[in-house]
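Re: the 74-residue chain
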Amino acid sequence: MNREKVLKQEILTEKINKLEMYSVEVQKLTSESRIVKFAEDSLSLVRPNKNIEKIEVPKNQILQIEKLLKEKYD
């Protein structure tokens, strides 16, 4: 009985380790530095040096647009 318990614990530990390895791999593949490098090298995208200009829109105008869209697609 104990032998079976130990065997199942080892199997569980292996599966947990495998999941952690997959998690680490996903983190590597989705890291910002990797994505930025890929975008610059493969897609020739350039990250802006300064902040992009912001356009301020009044909240009531946004609500009006949302209302119009809802009416159009309902």
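The helical segments are 2-29, 32-42, 59-73.
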